[in-house]
Design goal:
The structure holds 3 protein chains of 3 kinds. Chain A is an all-alpha fold. Chain A folds into 2 domains: 154 residues, Four Helix Bundle (Hemerythrin (Met), subunit A); 290 residues, Cytochrome c oxidase-like, subunit I domain (Cytochrome C Oxidase, Chain A, Up-down Bundle). Chain A contains 15 helices and no strands. Helices cover 32% and strands 7% of the residues of chain B. In chain B, helix 2 crosses helix 6 and helix 4 crosses helix 6. In chain B, the strands form 2 sheets. Chain B has a two-stranded antiparallel sheet. In chain B, strand 1 and strand 2 form a beta hairpin. Among the domains of chain C are: 29 residues, no CATH class; 122 residues, Cytochrome Bc1 Complex, Chain D, domain 2 (Orthogonal Bundle). A two-stranded antiparallel ribbon of chain C has the order 1-2. The longest helix of chain C has 20 residues. Classes of the chains: A mainly alpha, B mainly alpha, C mainly alpha. The interface between A and B is large, with 84 and 75 residues.
């Protein structure tokens, strides 16, 4: 809508902008306020819970006697509780909030009956709570990324149906002719996820397939939760916040289209790379490897698009928290995906498969990319929901550095340790216990990195709680930035 | 792009492509794999696990053993699975058809367990190892599963044959040397060990025969 | 479309305080406009990279897919090489051992040593390694009466197995006996068993060792 004025505005920042679209945005933000708040606060609570489980699991790996006599905390259970808390608790709640906040804004359509989404949030969080407790109680299904017992998952279904329907309805009532790239990603993610989840539930739990067909379904599902649910939401956020904060257009629409469709076609075949060398037909493994290599295309395309959008404005990284988190995430998206394509090559996989390398890679993707982008998104969204500013720039700074340094140490450490572990495991002259012993320093370093990340999360939680509790200030406010922007005459960067 | 329906169609086809290729095609191609009948032996393979082993499988699932142990042997020449004694041949799909839930696993924090039943058939070893891995594997990072055991008074004349034979100084250090008491595995531990002992792929199916790449002819180009 | 209680920046509407308006305006006005897309063309190098990757992947999948057969697990197998399954070769010794284990070990034992004084041994036995015409008759109709095996005397009754075992089973079991425990005698064929069975159809009751010794 009104593309000419917004185009003009992006070229000449001094041009007075339309107040009507901005007024609309405020009404739209107001309509998303309560559901987004509920999802974001739930996400944060799950982040803290997932972090506790993560620390326990990490300590147990190098000190197996740590809390060793509690059956409900045995490593196999607490590790799965961590995974499900951070995937379905933190990441998905954050994804929901960001998805429909972005969809509402980009469609320029207010969220109708937002109360229903709050009901959805309750169902979702109830389901995840029951699921995580079920895992600790011993009802885990031991299916990766699907460990929650079958009594918890119907609740997730109900919640998801409501959120999905709401996003589509909002999109349906859009006022803009042009569908922006973030909207394609969000619609795609919202459509793909229930298909993946339903097939996985049916073919793995309710009517299990015979033999290793289960493994194929499992990894088609699990990798696509990464690639077709979280990655699109993360990219949707990056595609929104980078140009939004900078006030510049995305470099190339054609690159966006190519990036989207190549991701859609190739990513969903890549999941079989978790089964290289395994008891499944060689052809499906080769197809998965080929798709994983082809993923270089959407990743490079997106990286080029983002980079060329950012070019000339890297200085903004010094001031804007949103931009810094999101760009950190986007850079790691490129790195982790290229690593993933490399790991799919059979000769590389011979070394990295079954090692800590995979764990480092997974955390680089889900944390250094997705979680950091979500942090950036929340730093942008919450002030607009609450009409308050972040109370403390110092806490944002602490959050960023602890999280960024922590996760980087995490994945670099585990990838190095995992590579060595793989090389040694492939050398039959090295006894297995010696290989295990040699991984210990890397496991301890991972715990240290985890502690650093925890401090970052605590800084974030304190900031959010403080912001929620603080009274709304009188009059105009200035955004909480890392430091004051250099030019005060131009509109402040935010 | 401005056309909603076109985007939707593309999104649908994208996932339909992999769903058809990875899930549906494989379900059709080998989703009904039957056991293999060997005319010489006069029976089918793989062996069906016993009832106790099936119960043990549920314990394996509940405790999350899969998250440190894989159950798949890679082909000879790819990794060192065969040299480490983890299996004599590559695991194939038919090995898993009697498993209601397949625990292929993706981590080898601990060794592969596909053939642990033939590699380590001693129940005594397994009971000790599960109680405290340090007893059999010093330096191991596997957690102890003491909650799978009970330290109880010996009923008169009914000492359990399954009572663990702990080394004397270990028993003393951990207060497990009370006279008239024994450390026994609970039924869950018995089931779990029965399950572990059932893990052996001894039969070589026709599709599991190792592939020998053809040698290039002498003086080949 | 206004949410109740929220400041509505539409200026015509009463009820929004100046302060609230200011605050909302401040947050909104400092925002940059909603994102848009530029229209720079695709870099040519990228198209080159894409084509190369597509070509490489197609070749890779074609070569390493074992003909898309679900029974090929080794990616090195050339397409079309998995071939027909090798014909199953039945091993008479394996089959015969099964028959022996089911029917004979109660008396002759798995070691083939029998029970001293009661059941004669088969291991090293001159009868077992002797003329097949004799031992086929023993298995078909049974044996009764004093017999010397490996210089030891036995006097017992062996039941007939002809009615319950097929010719192939008898042949395989005898082949197994004649090649196990160090025995070295030629195998027995199912045709021979069939021939003997027809020849002795009129004979009733167990054979006696004296009768059998008359047969060459």
């Amino acid at each position: 809508m009104a593309s000419a004025p917004s185009l003009a505005a992006s070229l000449h920042p001094a041009t007075p902008t339309d107040t009507v679209p901005r007024a609309e945005l405020s009404a739209i933000d107001a309509s998303t306020k309560w559901p987004a708040l509920v999802f974001i606060v739930s996400a944060l609570v799950w982040l803290l819970i997932g972090t506790v489980f993560a620390l326990i699991a990490s300590f147990k790996m190098h000190s197996p006697e740590f809390l060793g006599n509690y059956e409900w905390l045995t490593f196999g259970r607490v590790r799965s509780a961590h995974l499900n808390a951070v995937i379905y608790g933190w990441s998905t709640n954050a994804a929901f909030a960001v998805a429909f906040w972005l969809m509402a804004r980009l469609s320029r359509a207010a969220l109708r009956h937002p109360g229903v989404l709050i009901v959805a949030a309750c169902f979702w969080n109830l389901g995840v709570t029951i699921g995580v407790i079920g895992i600790l109680a011993g009802d885990s299904t031991s299916i990766e990324w699907l460990e929650m017992p079958p009594y918890a998952t119907p609740l997730l279904f109900v919640a998801y149906a409501l959120v999905g329907a709401w996003a589509v309805i909002t999109f349906r009532f859009r006022k803009s002719e042009h569908i922006y790239v973030s909207q394609w990603y969000i619609l795609a993610a919202l459509f793909w996820f229930p298909w993946l989840y339903s097939i996985a539930q049916i073919m793995l739990i309710f009517e299990p397939a015979r033999g290793t067909v289960q493994a194929l379904v499992n990894w088609w599902f699990a990798h696509n939760v990464l690639g077709l649910w979280f990655t699109p939401i993360g990219l949707a956020a990056a595609y929104y916040f980078i140009p939004k904060v900078l006030g510049k257009p995305i470099h190339s629409y054609y690159l966006s289209v190519l990036g989207f469709w190549s991701l859609a076609i190739f990513y969903n075949w890549a999941g079989v790379h978790h089964l290289i060398g395994g008891p499944v037909p060689a052809w499906v493994i080769s197809a998965g490897i080929a798709a994983s290599l082809m993923m270089v295309i959407p990743v490079v395309v997106t990286a080029v698009n983002h980079h060329l959008t950012m070019v000339g404005s890297f200085g903004a990284l010094r001031t804007s928290p949103t931009l810094r988190f999101v760009v950190f995430g986007a850079v790691n998206y490129t790195l982790v995906s290229l690593t993933g394509s490399a790991m799919a090559i059979r000769s590389v996989n011979e070394i990295t498969h079954f090692t800590h390398f995979t764990v480092g890679h997974a955390h680089e993707g889900m944390y250094a990319f997705f979680t950091m982008v979500m942090f950036g998104a929340i730093y942008y969204i919450l002030p607009r929901l609450l009409l308050k500013e972040w109370p403390s720039a110092a806490l944002i700074r602490a959050h960023f550095w602890c999280a960024a340094v922590g996760v980087t140490i995490y994945w670099v450490d585990l990838e190095i340790g995992g590579w060595i572990q793989g090389m040694q495991m492939n050398n039959p002259n090295i006894p297995f216990l010696e290989v295990v012993h040699n991984t210990l320093p890397y496991l301890v370093t991972r715990s240290v990195a985890g502690i650093l990340m925890t401090i970052g999360h605590l800084a974030f939680a304190v900031n959010v709680a403080w912001m929620l509790a603080a009274k709304r200030p009188a009059g105009a406010t200035a955004p909480t930035l890392f430091r004051s922007p250099p030019a005060m005459q131009a509109a402040p960067v935010r | 792009m401005n056309r909603g329906p076109l985007i939707f169609l593309g999104i649908f086809l994208a996932l339909a492509f992999s769903w058809t290729g990875i899930v549906l095609t494989n379900q059709i191609q080998y989703g009904s794999l039957t056991p293999y009948y060997d005319a010489n032996e006069g029976r089918t393979f793989p062996d069906k696990p016993s009832g106790l082993a099936n119960q043990g499988r549920l314990v394996y699932q509940d405790l999350g053993c899969m998250y440190c142990h894989s159950q798949q042997v890679r082909r000879p020449g790819y990794g060192a699975d065969e040299e480490r004694g983890w299996g004599e041949r590559q695991s194939v799909a038919r090995d898993y058809i009697y498993e209601p839930r397949v625990f292929l696993g993706t981590m080898r924090t601990g060794p592969d367990l596909r053939n642990i039943g033939s590699r380590q058939p001693s129940t005594d070893w397994h009971y000790l190892h599960l109680y405290d891995p340090q007893l059999t594997s010093p330096g191991s990072i596997m957690p102890p599963f003491r909650f799978l055991y009970a330290y109880r008074k010996v009923a008169p004349g009914q000492a359990s044959p399954l009572a663990l034979k702990l080394p004397a100084d270990y028993a003393r250090q951990h207060g497990l040397d009370r006279p008239g008491y024994e450390l026994v595995p609970t039924p869950r531990a018995e089931a779990l060990v029965a399950y572990l002992l059932s893990l052996k792929d001894t039969y070589v199916f026709p599709e599991a025969k190792p592939y020998v790449p053809p040698k290039p002819a002498a003086g080949a180009k | 479309m206004s949410a109740e209680g929220q400041p509505n920046p539409r200026l015509e509407q009463a009820g929004a305080s100046d302060e609230q308006l200011q605050r909302v305006h401040a947050i909104l006005l400092r925002e940059k406009p909603e994102p848009t897309e530029g229209y720079s063309p695709l870099p040519l190098a990228l198209l080159g990279l894409m084509s190369a990757l597509i070509l490489f992947s197609a070749i890779y999948v074609g070569r390493y897919s074992g003909g898309f057969s679900p029974m090929v697990y080794d990616e090195r197998m050339l397409p079309g090489m998995q071939g027909a399954a090798a014909p199953v070769v039945l091993d008479p010794r394996v089959l015969g051992k099964r028959v022996f284990t089911t029917n004979c070990i109660a008396c002759h034992q798995t070691t083939g040593l029998g029970l001293p004084g009661i059941y004669p041994p088969l291991a090293g036995s001159e009868w077992a390694q002797g003329p097949e015409d004799r031992i086929i008759r023993i298995v078909l109709d049974g044996l009764s009466g004093p017999i010397t095996v490996e210089e030891k005397q036995f006097n017992n009754t062996m039941p007939a197995f002809g009615p319950m075992l097929k010719d192939e089973q008898i042949a395989d079991a005898l082949t197994y006996v004649r090649s196990e425990w160090g025995n070295k005698a030629p195998p027995v064929s199912a045709d021979k068993v069939k021939e003997i069975r027809a020849a002795v159809a009129d004979h009733s009751g167990a054979w006696s060792p004296a009768e059998l010794l008359k047969i060459p």
